[in-house]
Amino acid sequence: MAEPFNTPIPGSTPVLASTPRSSSPAPLLPSLTPTASMSTIPLRPPPQKDQSERRRPIVLHIGDPIKYNPATYTEFSQAFEVIRPSTAERDRGEFKKALQERRWGDFSAIFRPFWGTGGEMGRWDAELISLLPSSVEVFASAGAGFDWADTKLLGERGIIYCNSGLAAAEAVADFAVAMVISTFRHLPWCMGAATLPYFLKASSGSDATTGKTFQACHSLATAVSHNPRNHVLGLIGFGNIGQQIAARFGNPSFGMRIAYYDVVRKPASLESSLGATYYPSLELLLAASDCAVLCTPASPDGKPLITSDALKHVKKGSRFVNVARGSLVDEEALADALEDGRISAAALDVHAEEPKVNSRLVKMAFGEQDVVTDHTQHAKSNFNHPGRVMLTCHNAGGTVETHIGFEELSMRNIMAVSGGKEAITPVNLHYLKKTE
């Protein structure tokens, strides 16, 4: 479910008080507002081999160089010897060889400031983790999700894994607003009916559907569209992102009723401030929700959460949104639920086999834009209209401000742990404690 240890939302993000941490308070996160220069920091020259240089802890920087936070990087590179493997060295085979050879020495931290690069070696599983030197204390990465790394095994090795979900929370919550509204108002249908026929005409030379799809959607979308107000919004995971989504939809502007499920119930004060009702199981939450939003970075056991068994419990005609991880959803089961009307509409920003998108869901996103021109046919099948599914390209967290925060937060996590302080956004401390 949501990250086991929630973190304070930065002062620059005007939303709500977050869940208290289970451990002692962590250092406050500096402002993540985009005030830094955006010029790329060049690679540092080869480190000098004097005695003082050897005493600096080594940080293995995987992925692109720093782009947005030069001031913090100056502080960071003065505190550590930063080594950045080449692209060729990040290929899994060569990366394994380099670890076996101790090519980069006894580094103390792994630093991945960008989500789009630094993952060329593939999943951090037992094969890679077993090759890490015992000196490694912390792995700090961009991104909210961490299903690509075995955080349990890292914790058992004494390595704290820190994600950067805090930096993405505002952007993801904003995107979720659009997706939730889409499921109530069928935006893909409305947009496709207005524009798709013209693209089809340009490619085929036929204007048979031009105008007809517009009028059909204008006439028929009303019968399946609703205002979100007074509907139940069920949040699967109630960490920073879930709380920010709750703050947006629970306020008078939208007036939705907020419900949530998480592996750890949040304090009563937080529930009260957000008007959130706790459900002790996923099944109970799905049964109560008019729209369920999956907003957790990982599942407890690494398996999908939204399965055919789970979908048996949904309220008929409800809606589903995924801004979490594609691997958490059995997409074939979701397509089945959409086809038989258990779910009336869905919106997915993430996909199980990215960049490939499930073909059945694609068909539901576009469909045949003229199938609803027959009012009688539509009346017989309330759920068989095009545009029931909004599909996007893992864009929810993708803003400049998010990437500024990814860089900043990753560096601050490493500096905190190296300095003997609490990590800011750890996700696997419970596994470390089991080894004590």
What's the short story on this structure?
The chain is built from 17 helices and 12 strands.
CATH superfamily of the largest domain: NAD(P)-binding Rossmann-like Domain
Number of strands: 12
Strand fraction equals 5-15%
Number of helical segments?
17
Give an account of the 3D structure.
With 436 residues, this protein is an alpha/beta fold. It has helices spanning 51-55, 70-79, 92-101, 126-129, 151-156, 165-185, 187-204, 212-220, 240-250, 268-274, 282-288, 308-311, 331-339, 359-366, 375-380, 400-418, 429-433, and strands spanning 58-61, 81-83, 109-112, 138-141, 160-162, 232-236, 257-261, 276-278, 291-294, 318-322, 343-348, 389-391. The longest helix has 21 residues, at 165-185. The chain folds into two domains: 51-168 and 399-433, NAD(P)-binding Rossmann-like Domain (Rossmann fold, 3-Layer(aba) Sandwich), CATH 3.40.50.720; 169-391, Rossmann fold. The protein is 36% helix and 11% strand. A seven-stranded parallel β-sheet has the order 8-7-6-9-10-11-12, sandwiched between helices. It has a five-stranded parallel β-sheet with strand order 2-1-3-4-5. Strand 9 (291-294), helix 12 and strand 10 form a beta-alpha-beta unit. Helix 6 (165-185) packs across helix 9 and helix 7 packs antiparallel against helix 8 (212-220). The model is unreliable at 1-47 and 369-382 (pLDDT under 50).
